[in-house]
Amino acid sequence: MESRRRLSGVRHERDTLRDAALVVVRCATDDGARTELDAVIAAFV
Asked: What stretches of 30-45 show up as alpha helix (H) in DSSP?
């Protein structure tokens, strides 16, 4: 039972670390430019 709890905790920490890494990458690569949704849709129609 203890190992199941520990594994659950490790999975939670893994997910938290992955989310934090995604935030860091997005912050580092975001230049602030945004594309209007209509322009995106028009590019695929």
From this structure: 37-44
